[in-house]
Amino acid sequence: MSIPSIEDSWARIDAWLAAHAPVSHARLRPPASQADIEAAQRTLDVAFHPDLKASLRCHDGVEPVDGTPVLAYYGPLSSVTDIVRSTEFLRGIGADLDEDLDEDEPLDEDDEDYDELASYWHKDWLLITLGIGRQSSDGLFLTCHAGAHWGRVGRYFDEDAPSFTSWPSLRHVLADYADALERGSTFGGRTPVVADGTLLWDDETSVVPQPRSPLALAAAAGEPRPAPPAPAAPPAEPPQADGPRLVFVRVRQSEPPAPPPYQPDTIFVEGIGADQLLERLGAVPGTVLARTREHAEESAESLWAAHRPLVRAGTAGAWAYAVQEAGAAQFGRPEVLRRVSARTRAVALTKRGPEVTVTLAEDGVARPKALHHVLSPREDRVDIPGTDQPARRVGTDPFPGSQAAYVRVLAALEGEFGIVHRPADDVAAELTSALLLPVLDDMPETGNPVTFVRDFDLAALVGRTPADRLRAAFAAQLARLAAETHIDTYPEVADALELIGRGERVPLTADDALDLRLRTLAAEAWAARQSVRPSWRDDGSPLSQDDTNAWWIRHGAAGALRAFILRPVPEAAASIIHQRTTAHWRAELAEDLASS
């Protein structure tokens, strides 16, 4: 199939913008003069590719102001002046980097193995777009270097190596751009939309209707059972032989470094039992079982756990306690401390590398003055003699101070609270244990004014729209979001949406059906993300990247629902707009505002 000429593609772009996005069409600059193009070539000592000269003779780039047409993520087209300025700037950086490399020999461009992409910035590259930030830090470049890639379009980003795009020429870029405008199809992964006469580019996301569930896979897999200990083998009889014998002498080598002591994150709660503590922590029904530490660790590493936290619980005098054996840390979270300390008090002992922290909470309120924090300096690094280079000593505890601090903290807990606890005594004990369905993070009190979301002036809409009408419109937007992400298939969510649609308050309390659904969606999303590996580390995960994306999109939509229930409408509106998966949400919002 023949590719339209530069002039034909620009004619189509001009016509579409004039008809649908007149504000953006007015931002196109007039044609560049032949004299300006020739002057730029002399300044840069580069012969511009015919495609670039033809494009500049149609439009000398764009005015880099609000409403200007951009090439999706790649930013606005550069003018002749922008091309000269950007190219000189990038050449200067490339020259400095080449000096720092201090190569013995320059690259030979006549060598058949010559790689044009091997340099930071090739002298015959021209940056033809200003990146999304309208700076010379990223964008598309056109290679004017005579050779195999002459006229090819590449992508430059200052924090990554340059690469060639799938477009073999600028003609292909502009032809695809014109097609995307006329057909409403994607360009560079984004979809064109028009708002108030301005061309915008937005993301269009499809969601797998029925992604594979990590938690369902976990339930089907079942928990591995610990194997019974193998009987000890009888000692072997030494062989009897006549005559000379060959004797082997075993030489004792240095002992391997001892494993670090068992110092888990632990939480103590006064006046309740171990079972009640597990319930407050969010124990998953059906996973409660007496387990040793070895059994718990083996189970936590299996498909059955689905990357959920696993804790074991016991009692120490008047206190119940739980130790975390696996999963994302829980006991230092304020949401957890608030739940477990309701109508009593809780003490959390957490350890992260150099940090040992003790936190006290009483009746759901953390006591900052009771916070005890110890920071251990790193001690496993030494300087290599004769150099200024550090090295790490293998097998050395990097933070020995934190190990000692943990022991001191336990002694202090005994003196202050009467808690007598020795973690090592629990290693072989079969303690009641369970996987957790973690509680949700607190929704932050942002206090920040709502401004722009996805290039949309939400603040202006909030300011001119009556509160009742705004709420009704975004209740409809929330229902659209729930439908396109498929979370409205859950009965608890559907019931909440029905109440919202009628303008009624939605109850959301700890451990009710809706709370459990939202927490389950968060657990699904977390497990999916932890399960999927990059293609180069494919280990046969049963989940695809599409499954993972679907769960995270559902989790985001659930967060928008929670925001609508708990936060003021303008803040919830920002979350809903941010999560919408269709690029055409602006038109739908206009419909919802008109009908509310």
Which characteristics define this entry?
596 residues, alpha+beta, nine-stranded antiparallel β-sheet, four-stranded antiparallel β-sheet, 19 strands
Q: Could you explain how this protein is built, in words?
A:
With 596 residues, the protein is an alpha+beta fold. Helix content is 38%, strand content 14%. The protein is built from 18 helices and 19 strands. The strands form five sheets. Strands 7, 8, 9, 10, 11, 12, 13, 14 and 17 form a nine-stranded antiparallel beta sheet that branches. Strands 1-2-3-4 form a four-stranded antiparallel beta sheet. The longest helix has 22 residues. The relative contact order is 0.09.
Strand content: 5-15%
Task: Give helix % range.
Answer: 25-40%
Helices and strands: which structural class?
Answer: alpha+beta
Distance between the termini: 49 Å
**Which spans of ≥5 residues are poorly predicted at pLDDT below 50?**
none
Counting DSSP H or I runs of 4 or more residues, the number of helices is: 18
Instruction: Outline the biggest β-sheet.
Output: 9 strands, antiparallel
Rounded to the nearest angstrom, the radius of gyration is 32 Å
Q: How many DSSP-defined strands? A: 19
Mean pLDDT: 89
**Overall morphology:** globular
